[in-house]
Amino acid sequence: MIAVNVGSGSLIEVFPSDEYIKRAVPNSSYWGSIDDKSIVLIKADDVIEDIRHGHEYYHYLIDSELFDSMWTNSHDELKKIYKSNKVQQLSLF
Prior knowledge:
This protein is an alpha+beta fold.
């Protein structure tokens, strides 16, 4: 599936959130990988016209549905963290 950045128009391939992404961001819908980090997409409550100027880059469209985004550890890091069962602070980058 492809997500389109509202601000830049750039495209990223995204996947349905799996157990590792959902443990980090429970309300996530999709995730993708950019520069060895996971970008997580969460269904937005607002409409595209309500996005404040300058915040367009934090939003993505998938099949005309609007999503907010946030960053977390890479998918591989999340798998290691959750498979090891060690409590650990997730880094932002």
